[in-house]
Write a structure and sequence with these properties.
The complex is a heterodimer of chains A (286) and B (319).
Chain A: H1 2-7, E1 29-31, E2 38-40, H2 41-46, H3 62-69, E3 76-78, E4 82-84, H4 93-104, E5 110-117, E6 120-127, H5 138-153, E7 158-164, H6 172-191, E8 196-205, H7 206-209, E9 218-221, E10 227-228, H8 232-239, H9 250-255, E11 261-262, H10 265-278
Parallel strand pairs in A: 6-7, 7-8, 8-9, 8-10, 9-11
Antiparallel strand pairs in A: 1-2, 3-5, 5-6
Helix pairs in contact in A: 5-6
Chain B: H1 9-27, H2 33-52, H3 56-64, H4 71-78, E1 80-84, E2 97-104, E3 107-114, H5 120-125, H6 133-148, E4 153-159, H7 166-170, H8 173-186, E5 191-200, H9 201-205, E6 212-216, E7 220-222, H10 226-234, H11 240-246, H12 251-256, E8 262-264, H13 275-293, H14 298-310, E9 315-317
Parallel strand pairs in B: 3-4, 4-5, 5-6, 5-7, 6-8
Antiparallel strand pairs in B: 1-2, 2-3
Classes of the chains: A alpha/beta (286), B alpha/beta (319).
The complex binds zinc ion (ZN).
């Protein structure tokens, strides 16, 4: 079983470094970040980007994630049309955004909407780290807040998959305030009895980790995901000591009581389905 | 004068020159009254010019200034019968945050604030005003209590940020901050937040979800320190001065971005020049806030808070 392979992993997840970069033909082949074995990209895709050898969870795009969970054709996207302004007139920001819009085909590093998972309707948000590292600016905050409000109005659960380096510098204080905005929305939703499931994927750090990602009724993570508030380098500089390899991994957070569960990607849909079922009667607003 | 801020140097130099001339005239027959009064006039102009045109980076220096008044200074000036209460009831007492109850204009309030030290010894005890999770959990405990007894909450914000340490991560820095944001959103009593010094990122925001957010004129509030932003964006922390401009972190910037409600003026040269005057300026704004907010029903408080945060952000629509 894939899970058995996964047990052999020791290293914490890292963002691919120079040395980890592909020295194999782009497109057709893919080198595993965890064990450096080379696979056909198709083969890796078949395993939802989890390495068949070592169990390393490579990122999924927002739409790959949706496909991995939702009943075919059931997902309806919300607020696709929202794009960022340049509120601080930050140099080069417009160009960088345009570049990532072209690269990813997304308007922002998050997709929100609703659909059915094994027949059960839910509101949903998924971040895409290939869009500006999944950083959170005004649009992301707005889309999340709207999705939560819609979930509240339509009496739906709200599920979010996070993948973000934190706040988006180029929007300054406005990006910080999205932490507050989303948290206020979650409070209203929660008080109305809404079910929220947060699934943290690699990486979930900074302002995203310190707001909605940590505010689910259930906080779940994928194996090996980097989860934490402050960056490893900053902490090492501050405390002047080397941090253990597994520092801020999902497994580390689980051990320290900060997560409900670490769940393999191949078992995610089944767990979410069960959770949705178990909250049908009382937990979900009706 | 213990420290001189970079941008104040011309003022200090001129002041020293005037003092020197005055000393000189005392011991000599020469009458330099005219020269001195000319220089004093020039000093007044220079002060107006420098203090009236502070650049963002100057304000960063001011906000971080060792002698700048802290939470406890304002508590002392604004409130009576302050009783400090300690501990989060889970792990420990984080002295980077102070919390307690006091009288404000004869009525009980809950007051919470980041607390940095003014000297090395106190700074070590208070971890330079950079809280661990237990600090935020202590704060939340007091906020919940304020709600139970229907007291308004005043939060003073003054931190470089939540402490980036190993233990802080292990005990759930993210969770502690996130939890405060969410719980503050739902408190049915008025919350007034005032940034008095540095408002550093999530560590500041964790005491910063409220109904009215005010900032002292020379306080800053930002998603990351100018040094951090420069390092991250341009790989050069030496460009902090430039980052301070680009990041829009001053009280006036935040007012313009619709993030804060009011800019509270400071005495000429900064809050540390005249604590009594500063406290009076602050009192005026706080009093107005409390007065306005205590008129609202619990439902109105919550609804208005949501409206306030809902509108923060800038985006556009494309086809
Ligand atoms: Zn592998």
């Amino acid at each position: 079983m894939l899970k058995d392979f996964f047990g052999k992993r020791r290293k914490y997840a890292t963002i691919p470094s120079e040395q980890g970069k592909l020295d194999v033909p782009e497109g057709l082949m893919q080198k595993c970040v965890g064990c450096h074995k080379i696979y056909y990209r198709k083969e890796m895709k078949k395993h939802m980007n989890v390495c068949p050898n070592c169990g390393y969870h490579h990122p999924l795009t927002a739409w790959e994630r949706i496909d991995s969970l939702f009943d075919e054709g059931s997902f309806v996207e919300w607020d696709k049309h929202l794009i960022t302004g340049n509120p601080l007139n930050f140099p080069d920001y417009d160009e960088k955004m345009e570049k990532d819009r072209k690269k990813t085909g997304l308007n922002e590093g998050i997709v929100t909407g609703k659909g059915t998972i094994a027949g059960q309707a839910t509101a949903f948000a998924v971040m895409d780290s290939s869009f500006r590292m999944g950083s959170m600016g005004s649009v992301m905050g707005e889309k999340i807040a709207r999705a939560i409000e819609s979930a509240k109005e339509e009496s739906l659960p709200f599920i979010i998959f996070t993948a973000s380096g934190g706040a988006r510098m180029q929007e300054g204080i406005l990006s910080l305030m999205q932490m507050a905005k989303t948290s206020v929305a979650i409070k209203r939703f929660s008080d109305a009895g809404g079910l929220m499931i947060s699934v943290m994927t690699h990486p979930t750090t900074g302002g995203v980790s310190a707001s909605f990602a940590s505010l689910g009724d259930y906080n779940i993570a994928e194996p090996g995901a980097l989860i934490g508030f402050a960056g490893r380098r900053i902490i090492e500089q501050t405390i002047r000591e080397k941090l253990p390899d597994d520092f801020q991994t999902a497994e580390f957070q689980l051990k320290h009581g900060q997560l409900d569960k670490v769940v393999h990607r191949h078992e995610m849909k089944s767990l979410i389905t069960t959770l949705l079922e178990m909250h049908q009667k009382d937990g979900v607003i009706s | 004068m213990k420290h001189v801020l970079e941008f104040e140097k011309p003022i200090i130099n001129l002041k020293e020159k005037i003092a020197e001339l005055k000393r000189f005239t005392e011991d000599s027959e020469l009458d330099l009254t005219d020269e001195i009064s000319t220089l004093e006039k020039r000093l007044a102009d220079l002060e107006d010019d420098i203090y009236g045109n502070l650049k963002p980076w100057d304000r960063v220096q001011m906000a971080r200034y060792q002698e700048r008044p802290t939470t406890l200074d304002y508590i002392d000036k604004l409130f009576t019968n302050f009783i400090e209460f300690h501990g989060d009831r889970y792990y420990g007492d984080d002295e980077a945050i102070v919390a307690g109850i006091a009288y404000y204009n004869g009525k009980p309030i809950t007051v919470i604030g980041h607390q940095r030290g003014k000297g090395t010894k106190e700074n070590i005890r208070r971890n330079f005003g950079m809280p661990h999770p237990e600090g935020y959990r202590k704060a939340l405990r007091h906020m919940k209590q304020a709600e139970k007894f229907n007291r308004p909450i005043v939060c003073f914000i003054d931190t470089k940020g939540a402490y980036p340490g190993k233990a802080a991560e292990e005990r759930g820095q993210s969770e502690a901050i996130a939890h405060n944001l969410m719980e503050m959103a739902g408190l049915t009593v008025p919350i007034v937040c005032i940034v008095i010094g540095e408002g550093g990122s999530g560590g500041a925001l964790a005491l910063g979800v409220g109904d009215h957010i005010h900032m002292l004129e020379n306080a800053t509030y930002s998603v990351i320190s100018p040094e951090g932003a420069a390092a991250l964006l341009w790989k050069d922390s030496g460009l902090a001065k430039q980052a301070a401009e680009s990041m829009k972190i001053t009280a006036y910037d935040l007012k313009q971005l619709n993030v804060i409600d009011r800019v509270i003026p400071e005495p000429k040269g900064g809050a540390h020049r005249d604590l009594d005057q500063q406290a009076a300026y602050l009192n005026e704004v706080l009093e107005a806030s409390i007065k306005e907010l205590t008129d609202y029903s619990k439902e109105e408080i919550l609804e208005k808070r949501w409206e306030k945060y809902k509108q923060i952000g800038e985006y556009k629509s494309v086809e």
